[in-house]
Structures are given as C-alpha cells and as structure tokens.
Amino acid sequence: MAIDVERTSVRPLVEHTVIDRYHAKARVNHWVTAITFTLLTLSGLALFHPGLYWLTAFFGGGSGTRAIHPWFGVVLLMSFSLLFIQFWKHNFWNRDDTQWVKQIDDVVKGDEEHLPELDKYNAGQKIVFWLMALFILILFCTGLVIWDQYFHGIVTIETNRLAALVHSAIAICAILLLIVHVYAGIWVKGSVRSMTQGNVTGGWAWRHHRKWLRREVRGAEPGGSTEG
Amino acid sequence: MIGEFSRRQFLRTAGAGIAGTTLGAMGFGGAEQALAQAVRPFRLAQTTETRNTCPYCSVACGIIMYGLGDRSRNTQASLIHIEGDPDHPVNRGTLCPKGAALLDFVKADTRLKHPMYRKPGSDKFERVTWDFALDRIARLMKDDRDANFIEKNKDGVTVNRWTTTGFLAASATTNETATLTYKVVRSAGMLVFDNQARV
Amino acid sequence: MSSYQSLDIKRRSATEFTPPAIRSTGLEVAKLIDVSKCIGCKACQSACLEWNNLKEDVGVNVGVYDNPHDLTPHSWTLMRFSEWDNPDTGNMEWLIRKDGCMHCEDPGCLKACPAPGAIVQYTNGIVDFISENCIGCAYCVKGCPFNIPRISAVDRKSYKCTLCSDRVAVGQGPACAKACPTAAIMFGSKTDMQEQAARRVEDLKSRGYANAGLYDPAGVGGTHVMYVLHHADKPEIYHGLPNDPKISPLVNAWKGGAKLLALGAIAFAAVGAFFHHTVVGPNKVSPTDEENAADLVEEAENGSPQPEPTRAG
Amino acid sequence: MTNTWQDIKNTDLVVVMGGNAAEAHPCGFKWVIEAKANRGAKLVVVDPRYTRTASVSDFYCPIRPGTDIAFLGGVINYLLANDKIQHEYVKAFTNASYLIKPEFGWNEGLFTGYDETKRGYDTSSWDYQLGEDGFAKIDDTLQDPQCVYQLMKKHFAVYTPEMVERICGSPKDKFLKVAEMMSECSTPTKTMTSLYALGWTQHSKGAQNIRGMAMIQLLLGNIGVRGGGMQALRGHSNIQGLTDLGLMSNLIPGYLNMPTDKEKDLGAYMSTRGFKPLRPGQTSYWQNYKKFFVSFQKSMWGDAAKVENDWAYDWLPKLDVTYDVLRAFDLMANGKMNGYFCQGFNPLMTFPDRGKITKALSKLKFLVTMDPLETETSRFWENHGEYNEVKSADIQTEVFQLPTSCFAEDEGSLVNSSRWLQWHWPAVKPPGEAKLDTEIMAQIYLRLKAMYQEEGGKLPDPIVNLRWPYANPEDPTPEELAKEMNGAALADVTDPTDPTKILVAKGKQLDTFAQLKDDGSTFSFCWIYAGCFTESGNQMARRDVSDPGDAGLAPKWAWAWPVNRRILYNRASSDVNGKPWDPSRKLVYWTGEKWGGFDVPDYGPTIRPEQSVGPFIMNPEGVARLFSRGMMRDGPFPSHYEPFESPVANVIAPKIRGNPAARIFKDDLVALGTPDKYPYVATSYRLTEHFHQWTKHVWVNAVLQPEFFVEISEQLAKEKGIDKGGWVRVWSNRGSVKAKAVVTKRIKPLMVDGKPVHVVGIPQHWGFMGKTKKGFHPNSLTPFVGDANIETPEYKAFLVNIEAIASGPVA
C-alpha cells in the first residue's frame, strides 16, 4: 500500500496510463470461444475417460453430453474463425520470435529484460494461436466424421476409427495448449484485464510487448488498427 | 485465505477439474455406483399356455401359444407370443420363418372382423349383419338350386345333382369343419366341390 | 438387477474395475452356427423379430434374397447369401451365413464404449447392451470388428443381438436357436459346442470338404457365437466374414492405456503450472515499468524524440 | 407320405426331386439333416434351380422343368440294365412276374386303346392275363416277354443316359452319378427315401412323375421299410385331411368314389367294387367297400338311410363328368354357374390363367368368401391399377365376405403329411364378429333346411333328412363332429364267429373300422378315421412322446390313420419269411406266432409267412404294381411327354407333344404359346419365407421377402440387358406381369437337344392385399392345362418371354 501511495504521490498519472488492447467485439468473441472450449473440454473428457463420465451430469446425462458436444464444436469453429480473422495478421512469425524461443529459459523465469522487444504477441502466443487453429480444424473435421447422428456412413468404419483416435489425441493436445494459455494469462499479471476490460496498463505493455507499446504510443500502425 | 482460494480457482479453470477427477479415473467411481443394468425380464413367466398346431404346411408342427390372462372370468385372453412345442415329435420346438411369426398372422391388420357385402356393380364393401348375409346367401342358394337342380338325366337315370353352384373347401380347416362342410354341401346335391388338394 | 442375480458381470463398459463376479458358475455359453446345415430359411430372423418384439420396415427387393439388406436397429440377425464358384470342383456353392453379434470374449464394442454399464459381458460370455445406459455415441460401431451394432434413429440407442440374455437367464436357449428347423443353430456350453463342432467338421471332411473347420477367432479371444464352415480357410467367401478379426489397432490406441497417459499429461501440465507459479512467482509489472511506459507516453504526447528507455525494471 | 417325418432320419439316401423340402417344409426337412449328420446319409437334389435344399445337398443335378419322367425312366433303365434291383423284393412283393395281355402295346407315344376325340384311352388291354381260375397268370422266372419285368425293360430302354441328357438337359455324368447313388440302395440294408411335392404334381403328367419314382423305390425294395418310402410332402396343414374326407368332386370320405350316371342304383355301383382277389388267398381289403359305404350313408342320413331305399343311394348326386376346379372355372367363364363359395381359398391368385378366372367370377350371380384374412378373390371386383385392372361397375356379382376364425381360435384336428390326426385347442376368441366355420356352415344349412321345410322345392329330402344330432344345432362342437367321423354302433355289433359276444354295444364309439357293418348297424363318416375318437377318449389329443426303439414313430403321439399305423405297407420291411431285411432297422416282423415290432402291422396280424399273402393288402393281387393296370388314365407305365408349352419337340414320339390324356379345353388349347414367341421355360414355386398368399398379410414375413420377383440366370440377364434388382416384364400368351429381377448363378441355361434353354423362375406369394409390396402371381401367365389323372394344373413348366423395363407397375 505504501508503495502505491508513494507512487501515486510521485507520478499521479501513472495509474491512468492504460493502453487499449482488445475492443468489445474481440473480447466477447474470445470469451465465447473460451466458454465453448471449456464446455467441449468438459463434455469431451466426460466421454473420453470413464473416470470423468460423471461430468456428463452437467450436460443432462450421457445422451445429452453425446448430443450437445458436437454442437459446441460447431459454435467453437464459428467463434474461433472470427477470432482467427481478427488476429491472424498479428501472428506472423519473425526473427524476434525465434530469439524469444531461444531464450525460453528467461521467459519461464519471468526475466524479460534480455528478450527482444516484442510486438503485440510473443512467440508463445503465436504458437498457441496457430496450433489452436490447426487443432480446431482437425477436431472439427474428425468430429464431423464421428458425429454419427448426422454423418453416419459417410466414411468407412476404419476411417471412423482413425478419426476417433485423432480426435481424442488432438483434443488432449488442445487441452494442454489451453492449460498453457490459461496459465500464462494467470501468471503474467495484468493480462486478464485485457480480455475483461479491454486494456492493459502501460507498464504491462512496456514489460511484455514494448514494440507494440511504442507503436501504439506513436499512433501509427502499419497494419491498421491495433485493436483486435 | 485469499491466496488459498485463488489456487483452487486456478486449478478448476486451468485443469478443468482434472486433479480431482484423475482419482475417479483410477477406477473408484464405477465400483461405488449402483449398477442398474437389467436383463429384460423373461416375458412368458406368467402367461397361459395353449397347445396348437401350425396352420401352414403339412409338417403340422406343434406350437405353444402364450396368452395374457389366466382364464379367469373377467380377463379377456390375448395372445402375446407363439413358439414351437418342444414335446412335438416332428418339430421338437423348432419352427420355420412362417411358423415363428404366427402371432402376426393372428394379429394381422387385414384380419376380417365383420361380414361385408358388395352390391352388384358397386365399387365398395359395406358392413352388414350376420343375419342379413346368411339369410341372403341361403335364399340365393335355394333359388339357384330350385331353378337348376337336375333330378334325372336325359336317359332317365336319377342323378339328383346341382352343378350351378360350387364350393371350394379349405385345406387348412379342421377335419371337423370339413365334415360339417361335406355334409351340408353334398346333401344339397353339389358336385362342383374341391379343395387345394389338386392344385 | 437381475443380471447380478443370474448372470454375473464379467466386464462392464467404461468401468476400470468391475467387482469380481463371485457368483459365477464358470459355465460359458455359446451358439454354434453350422453353416453346412443351414438352409437359409430365415426362421432365426423371424424368431428374433417376434421374441424381441421388433418391428422392421417392409423393404423392397434389390435383386437378392437378403432381406432386410443389412442389419438394422430392429434386425439383430440376418441371413446373408453368397453365390460362390468353387474353383476346385467347378460347382457353384450357395453359402448362407447367419450374421449377427459374435459375442466376442474380448468385445471391441465394450472396449470402445464410453458409457459406464452400457455394455456388459456376463460371466457366461454374453455381451449385452443395456439401453438405459447407452448414450448413442456409436463408439461400439467403431469398436466392433464384425460391423454389428446399429444405432436407432428413433431413440439413438445402439442395438444388437443379446443372445437372448433374458431367455438364457431363465435357462432357455436363444429364440433363433430354438426355432432353427435344421439345428444349424445349436446352443449350449462353449465346450460342448466345440465338441459338437469337431464332430461336424469330421463329417464334412468325410464329404470332401478338406478345409472344413470351426470359426472361433483367436484375435478377439474366441467368440460365443461360432461357425462351422465348409471352407474355414476362406471365411471371407461367406459374405465377408473377417479372416482374422481383432479389435482394430486404432481402437486399441484410442481406448488403450494412452488414455491414462493423456489424462496424466493434463494433470501434469496443471500441477506443473501450479509449481511453476510457486517457484517463479507471478510475473508482475513493476512500478518502473509503469514509469517507463508513462515516460514513453509523455514523450510521445510532447512530440519529443523518444530516447531509449534507461530505467531498469 | 408312406412313412413319418422323423423316419427320414433312418435313411441312407434322400432324393429330393419334384420338390424343395428345405424351403417348403423346413421343420420336416430337419430329419434329412439328422440323417446326414447322424447316419452319414447323402442328399441328392434334382431341380431346375439350385434351391435352398440344394445348398445343403451332397450332389445336385439340374433338370429342365417338365422332363422328370425322362430322368426317372433313365434311372429305371439304369437299374434294370445294370441289374441293380432288390430281386427278392421285386419278385415277391411286386407284379414284376405278372403276365400282361398280349394286345397291350406302346407305339409312337401312345399306349393301346387311344381315342383322340375323347382325349382318353380304353384301358381294357392294360391288364393281366387271367387264368381259368380267375387268377392272374405269373412267370416266376421273369423271362416271359409279356411279364411286367420284361415289358418294363423294353419300355424304358429308350431312356439311355444320352437320351436323358438330350431331353432333360442334365449333363450325362451328373445323371449317371445320381443313378449310381440310387442304385446303391438296391441292397436290403441300404434304403433311399424320396421327398417330393408340387414339383411333380403340377404337370400335365404329374401322377406319372410320382409313379416313376414309386417304381424305382419298388425296384430297390424301399417301400414299407424304415428310411424308405414315398414322401408326398403335402402343402397345407390339413390338405391330407380334406383329401381323406373326400372334399372333392368325385370322392366320398375314406377314398370311396361318388357314383356316376352309369351307376343307376346301388347294385350297379357295387358291381364294379367287388375287389375279388387276383391271386389265391390275398387279403384285398377293399372287399369291405360296402361296409364303409353304408356306414357313410348312415352317418349322412341316419334312419332315413335304410336298406329299402338302397341306404339313400339316390340322394348322392351322380357325376356325369368330374367337376374339378378347371372344369368349374371353365363352366363359370361360359356362364354356366351362378353361385360359388370360397372357404379359405383364394382362386383369383391360385388357379391358372388369371384373366379367365376374373372373367369367370364376374359372371357369377353371387360369390361367398369365408376367410380369416382379406383375399384378392373377395375383392376381385375392386380396381387396383395394374395389379387388378377391372371395371367395378361392369361386374354384377353379389359378394359376401364372411370373417372366420383362424387356428388360434378354433379347436379340432388336422391331418399332417404322415397321416397323423392331431388335436389342437383355442387360446382366444375370434376378433370382432368373426365366427367359426362350423357355425357358419350350420347357420347356412339350418336356413336352407327351414326354407325347404316351409316352401318345398326341388328334392328337399337329402337336406331335411340330413343327420344333425348336435346338442346345439346352431353351433355343433368339434368334439361332436370328431366322434361322428369316427363312428359308433347304431345297434349292438356282435362277433361274426360268436353272435353272443358283443364287440361294440349300441351307442358306443367304434374302436376300428374292422367293426363296421354293411347292415346299417354302424355309422362312420370316414371309415379310415375309425379309432380316432373311441370310448377311451380322443386319441388325436394324445401327447405321449415315447418312441420305442428310437424308430421315429412316436406311436402314442396323436393318432394316425389307418388304425394308428405309422408306416404304410410295413409288412414289406421283412422278407417273405418274415425276417427283417435289415436287422438294424426292424419295423414289423414275424415273431413265430404273430406279426410284431414297433408299428401296427399293415397286415393280418396272424397270417403266417408261409401263407404267401402279399404285403400290399389293399390290392387284389396283394403285391405292388410296377404295371398299374387301368388305374391311371394315361398309361400303365410313365412315359415322357413334353409340357403343353415346351421349347422343343418330343424326341421320344415327335407326333405326340403333350400328355395325350391330359385335361385341356378347346379354348385353352388355342391360348397356348409357341417357342418362337415365348422362348423361355418358366416354372413357379414357393419360397421359404412365405406360405402361399397368407403370409403376405404377416408383417414379419413381409419383411423377410417383401416384393415380387423373378429369377433368371446371369447369361439370360446379359442377353436381355436385365440388371440385378431392375424391373422386368414377363409375359405369356395369356397375360403379363411386372417384377423385380433376381439375377443369379443358381439358375443356369441347359443344353437341350443341342440348344440352350433358359429358365425363368417365378415365385408365387404376392397379390394386391396385405403387408408386402403389391405384386403379381404366376397364375397371370400359366396355362389352363391339367394332369390326366387328377387335373392338377401345369404350373411348373410353361413358356414366357422377358424384357427389361424402366419402372414398375402403377397401382
């Protein structure tokens, strides 16, 4: 508290230095995706392992879970597609990203001073983004094939078996990725507000995405709006 | 306390409840559940059995008809199943695809339930009473017999025949029905009389 | 419940540990389908429909005797007809096989099923679908090496031959076996059926069927529905009876131990994250960061050149 | 059937020809499978199609429809030429040694005595040479050229294996294999059984087909033995019963004959029914004919049938011609009939040439149908598009559709193929207002009787005097009727050798037909059923499953006619000395004092073997007839004739194509098709999934075989551009049907007389009522031709043409 007070007294404006990161549309889009993903995770895991079958209770029982899971998937695909359209441009890989990956030790330790200055997303976020896009596409396609209620018989049973295997394996990968994503959000304090309030503090941006901050501050954005 | 709380929250959101449920995944869930699977109860346990013979071919397999109802005064029997009679020396409980489906014969949609009558030139049946049908049939028979009965042939031999009305008997009726049919048909002097035996 | 009383459970779908079936009599049952005695009369189909009160749709003729044309949620058994030219004798042989659930000792359907207790295997070997637990996911269809289960479009439940578990529970044989006019379907203990099959094979060999044999495929641990075939070396000529059926490796991979590994990975990730947090602590923004940012903003607003940040965070 | 269903398990060789037992009688066929599995028996199938019976056979031989006699003649020739006959049996138990009149002969396809204008024979030359003692002459050496054995050799010599192949299209090597397998059964310890059905009867020479095989069985010594015999697998559940009870134009119950115009009184009627033995000491059981006849008359008219009025002989209608169904519908089509009753019968989908049947029914004044189910016949006036194209308004027939009970709702007995009378019990009441047939018949009768009593009319006597002793005249009970079939004593029946001994007291049920009298002191509606319902109760309801010796007889299950005998001619199971031919298959044998064994002997129980009484006690000669004398209208030996519609000429006798004595009317002769327009041989049949037109009303069976189809070979399909499962039109000179095509390897073209003949198979289970898809019946195509002896229509061989069409019929 003391520090805060002190800070306030020294630089009253600091607390008000906020940078817009996501406008409302993007935030809603993200949370729809997040909620759908969570529901998919829960309903999927319910059918993935018998020990988690009790999770079906959240979806009106086994049949309900079986029935609704693919519809969540449809929602996820649509929702994620919108996210994708908004974010894909910011997720091109560059030299800094490679450097970032090389210094992953520093990243894990939270020592970011020796990292290159980063634009809106760091390499980790980009990896999450692209992998998630790939996983969702695979999950959707394989899910469609094993969605017996409407797509019975469109492929052979053997292909069906492959699809089921791939679907579950990819789903696990996607969940792991989600854990990374969520944990990153929690670990890196000040991140969550970007998706709840839509902005971050200047300090957060300085610390994690300085290149982005500089551009924001310049007001010039080569790629158009900075808001996703 | 607040830190403690947030840790739990973290686990729930990030791990989707995994930690708690991995225990379940080790197999402690199923064993505790009441296993409610049930074999369908044997559905002939309390039925009334009646012996009969398959009405189709001449192997004449023994069948057992399982009826709802215990033959008490106030219950109307209804068939629910038919199966082969294991005692029968020929079929020994077996049945062919026809015999095995006899229940659906008894209960066919096209079973007739009421006497029907079609007027000359009409394009439909209409429902009539038994009395109407039987009176009318008997009248038509008598009129035809009286008009066309031949008592003597051209050589003067007594022939007493009536050949303008004929009768096809059914070779799936009982001997007893056949006996009564024979008596009625022959006593009227009919000669145009046959059954499936030579078809 | 009655299943517990008369037909104890050996395996149960989506259940890691089934309580030991302590009441087991040790008697395993089996249905022996002697293709060499089968006349393809479809009495088994008829008896099955009647006993199980199934109402199949009246179809059409598509140029073959097989009706319905495939197994359906209402037709749990089906005669499949194959006209096969025997290259050795030059004669056409009309091979007629009663298709339906094989009641595998290692049932792929049960392995694939995600719903606890939707598929059970009794100690007598019968594999039964328990509809009230079935969720209609059709995983059993993927699990089955014989392509047997069918999902009803009406109630989205999976159906197949129960080996008349309700009849067996009260000491009777399955309806099809009882009806079969030529005793091409026999029912009894598995050992008795194997002995019976051996006698039949001997008879067939004496009639010139050198490759006659019993179909009790080891790949699925043996089955509780077995065939006597005149040409046991070529089961596929009997309308595609699998030569060496086993649970698909894909299904094994999907449903095998990898599952626990996967869950472990998830748990590990979650726990790992927790410990990372514990060890490294939160990645917080320092006041210096804020100041640096504020400076940057200020400079930008003032239009002055932006020096490189100097303050340490 | 001469034997029981279960007895088939005792055989060594099953020959299925002229039938398809596995499909039509699956549960009886199980005993074939038992014989195969437990005795190592072999199964041979000879059929135009590779049927489901063939699918479990050890040997299959194809044959062109309608050429069975050539095939069987070939086997007879093979047996005689290779001396593969059971000599002792043939000599002692058949008429092989009997000398035939020298005027008898065979020339150019005709036996002696043919009259073309009558389409029939004078059969007087087809008989034995009688000695001065009135007995038939025999030659035990079988060397006399006029003895039956030598005549047979001569008659069948033409049927060489090459000729069989030429006529039947059966490859010579396959025919020879079948003949060889059959010939192995000529030893006393190997038996063969023949299973046949409508594949033999539904021909213009159906009865002769069966005789062909019966002769083979006699030559092999297989009649009267366990695992042998001739098994007529009858179609309906009680077709045997209705035949026994004589529900036919020309029959009186128990195989007595209706009198004809020529028999003006009882004396004339009995004069040809003396059945004097043709060899010394023979039983000739028909000598009791009059006892059976009088007892029948007493059961019809009771006290009104008395010696003074020749036991009411005049009240029986006299036949001028046989009123078989072909004649009935011909009369009808010509406007000569006014009323018709169809009790559980569907002639519109049964009798040949459906167009003619529709025309015939349309000319009736009234039609009454009695059936538990809708039938096409009761709706013949209703338009069903292409399936029944009629104009209702033009049809003036009054139609009554009376609902009856079905098996589950009635009580009584049915006679199965092995002559067992089995009683059954009802479980439920008929639906709606449906009534039992017995009540309907009683109601019609009582109304008719009342009208004759009130109004008078033509000859009311037989109607008003009909014996009607039922407790409730309005609704006689099955038990009352069963007792009536059996018969009872009207006065005390005493022992002929000891008049003080009463065998049956007045009013008591008879135990056996041996108690029947021709003096009016007994009545029995059907003499062969005497014993079915005795003072000790309803024998038909017996349910004792015991089977001594595991013989396959189950003698205490239900009751078999005659006198609970399970295997006919069973005396022939032992040699002349009364010793079983095969000790492992004993049936009836001489114990030293009497005939004993597992079955009721078909023989006088105390006739000693040395008395040389033949085992075929119904025949005046006491032996079986290889030469049938004048008993068959179309010849004493079977002879090959082509079906009336045939793709080839009769190579045996080119001038005579079809059976010269077969039933055919002039109009129908004109309606026959020729091979230039109709090049393919069609045959009709049952499928195992259905029973006639009944089961198309049954949901499950409709599922199992839903839609009308025809079966053709892959070669014909290719030739005509027909796809598997595609629509085809099949037409004959009489009509046309549309069907789905089943293209199969199970039918193959046959090489007949050097040219390929294609077969079109047409199953017979569809119509325009019921649960199945609407369809046609082969009777739209079949010719109006009947067998020479029993007028069974020729459904099994006729000519059609076929083409692929784009779509099915319009309903």
From TrEMBL, chain A:
Name the UniProt record assigns to this protein: Formate dehydrogenase subunit gamma
Cofactor requirements of the protein: heme
Family of the protein in this entry: Belongs to the formate dehydrogenase gamma subunit family.
Biological processes per GO annotation: anaerobic respiration; formate oxidation; respiratory electron transport chain
Domain Cytochrome b561 bacterial/Ni-hydrogenase: 21-198
Compartment(s): Cell membrane
Organism: Hansschlegelia quercus
Source organism, top-level taxon: Bacteria
Stretches that traverse the bilayer: 31-55, 67-85, 127-147, 167-188
InterPro entries in UniProt: Cyt_b561_bac/Ni-Hgenase, Di-haem_cyt_TM, FDH_cytochrome_b556_subunit, Formate_DH_gsu
Record key words, sorted: Cell membrane, Electron transport, Heme, Iron, Membrane, Metal-binding, Transmembrane, Transmembrane helix, Transport
Gene3D superfamilies associated with the record: Transmembrane di-heme cytochromes, Chain C (1.20.950.20)
GO CC terms: formate dehydrogenase complex; plasma membrane
GO MF annotation list: electron transfer activity; formate dehydrogenase (NAD+) activity; formate dehydrogenase (quinone) activity; metal ion binding
Principal location listed in the UniProt entry: membrane
Keyword Iron: yes
Its membrane topology: Multi-pass membrane protein
TrEMBL record, chain B:
Gene Ontology biological-process entries: anaerobic respiration
PANTHER family (alphabetical): FORMATE DEHYDROGENASE-O MAJOR SUBUNIT, TUNGSTEN-CONTAINING FORMYLMETHANOFURAN DEHYDROGENASE 2 SUBUNIT B
Superkingdom of this protein's organism: Bacteria
Keyword Ribonucleoprotein appears in the UniProt entry: no
Cellular localization per UniProt: Cell envelope
InterPro entries linked: Mopterin_OxRdtase (IPR006656), Mopterin_OxRdtase_4Fe-4S_dom (IPR006963), MopterinOxRdtase_cofactor_BS (IPR027467), TAT_signal (IPR006311), TAT_signal_bac_arc (IPR019546)
Presence of keyword 4Fe-4S: yes
Family membership: Belongs to the prokaryotic molybdopterin-containing oxidoreductase family.
Name of the protein in its database record: Molybdopterin oxidoreductase
Cofactors, names only: [4Fe-4S] cluster; Mo-bis(molybdopterin guanine dinucleotide)
Signal peptide from the UniProt entry: none
Keywords: 4Fe-4S, Iron, Iron-sulfur, Metal-binding, Molybdenum, Oxidoreductase
Organism: Hansschlegelia quercus
Main localization of the protein described in the UniProt heading: other
Domain called 4Fe-4S Mo/W bis-MGD-type: residue spans: 47-110
Single GO term (MF): molybdenum ion binding
Record's GO cellular component terms: cell envelope
Automatic annotation (TrEMBL), chain C:
Binding-site residues for [4Fe-4S] cluster 2, renumbered to this chain: 48, 161, 164, 176
One MF term in the entry's GO annotations: metal ion binding
Cofactor(s), by name: [4Fe-4S] cluster
Major place of residence: membrane
InterPro entries recorded: 4Fe4S_Fe-S-bd, 4Fe4S_Fe_S_CS, FDH_Electron_Transfer_Unit, Formate_DH_bsu_Proteobacteria, Formate_DH_C_sf, Formate_DH_Fe-S_su, Formate_DH_TM
SUPFAM superfamilies: 4Fe-4S ferredoxins, Iron-sulfur subunit of formate dehydrogenase N, transmembrane anchor
Cofactor annotation remark: Binds 4 [4Fe-4S] clusters per subunit.
Positions of region (Disordered): 282-313
Gene3D superfamilies noted in UniProt: 3.30.70.20, Single helix bin
Binding site for [4Fe-4S] cluster 1: 38, 41, 44, 180
Binding locations of [4Fe-4S] cluster 3: 101, 104, 109, 144
PROSITE patterns assigned to the protein according to its UniProt record, in alphabetical order: 4FE4S_FER_1, 4FE4S_FER_2
GO cellular component terms given for this protein: plasma membrane
Localization per record: Cell membrane
UniProt domain 4Fe-4S ferredoxin-type: residue ranges: 29-59, 92-124, 125-154
One Gene Ontology biological process: cellular respiration
Name of this chain's protein: Formate dehydrogenase subunit beta
Record lineage: Bacteria, Pseudomonadati, Pseudomonadota, Alphaproteobacteria, Hyphomicrobiales
TrEMBL record, chain D:
Subcellular location: Periplasm
A GO MF term: molybdopterin cofactor binding
Cellular component aspect of the GO annotation: periplasmic space
Domain Molybdopterin oxidoreductase: from-to ranges: 1-444
Record carries keyword Metal-binding: yes
Keywords: 4Fe-4S, Iron, Iron-sulfur, Metal-binding, Oxidoreductase, Periplasm, Selenocysteine, Signal
CDD domains: MopB_CT_Formate-Dh-Na-like
Entry cofactors: [4Fe-4S] cluster
Gene3D superfamilies given in the database record: 2.40.40.20, 3.40.50.740, Dimethylsulfoxide Reductase, domain 2
Domain Molybdopterin dinucleotide-binding residues, every copy: 682-798
Protein name per the record: Formate dehydrogenase-N subunit alpha
Gene symbol of the encoding locus: fdnG
